[in-house]
Amino acid sequence: MCPIGYYVGINAGSPTWSLCTGEPGAGNQGKAVYRDEVGRAWVRVAYTEILGRSHGGISSYGYPVGIAGAESGGFGIIWESRGTLYVTRNGGRRWVGLPRVSDPELDFGGWASVLSRGVGFVILEQAGRTRLIETTDAGRTWRIVHRWARTS
Questions:
Q1: Kind of pairing, strands 76-81 and 63-69?
Q2: At residue 81, does pLDDT exceed 90?
Q3: pLDDT for residue 121
Q4: Cβ neighbours of residue 38 under 8 Å, at least 6 residues apart?
Q5: Average pLDDT of 7-29?
């Protein structure tokens, strides 16, 4: 489903969401979000290209690690290393960056999962300290569930 010039899609276990990526360089990487629209196969719902056009609110800045989304309800998360944490509430057509939740220059996204009814979890790491954050309202608000530090 990824177009020529993009890398194979990545996801976090949801069979209906996929994120294709372009060639990385200088802090930027092209991204394309695809959804498995029942009866229409895979449809590109948002994209960005390095120094090019974009659609849907995602930026070329950052290196995406994964995408997770609910199979119904439209809530999804994109997490990045050296980049922004994004959420969508409309099936991936419009993404909102959350730089106050995850600092694009300091936080590195390691994992995320989306459950039903707007519940989601993300693991972020910063300077050897890790935190698990949770949302119960489709990414409008977040709280820290647990923190831990790397031990030597």
A1: antiparallel
A2: no
A3: 97
A4: none
A5: 80
79, 17 contact by CB (below 8 A): no
- Regarding pTM above 0.85, the answer is yes
Q: DSSP letter string over 114-149?
A: E-STT-EEEEEEETTEEEEEEESSTTSS-EEEEEEE
Q: Count of CB atoms within 10 A of residue 71's CB?
A: 11
SS3 for 10-59, per residue?
A: ECCCCCCEEEEECCCECCECCEEEEEEECCCEEEEEEEECCCCCEECCCC
Q: Is 14 exposed, middle or buried (0-12, 13-18, 19+ CB in 10 A)?
A: middle
**Residue with tokens 């974009």, as numbered in its chain:** 54
Q: Tokens 């196969």 appear where?
A: 41
pLDDT, one tens digit per residue, over 128-149 is 899 999 999 999 999 999 999 8
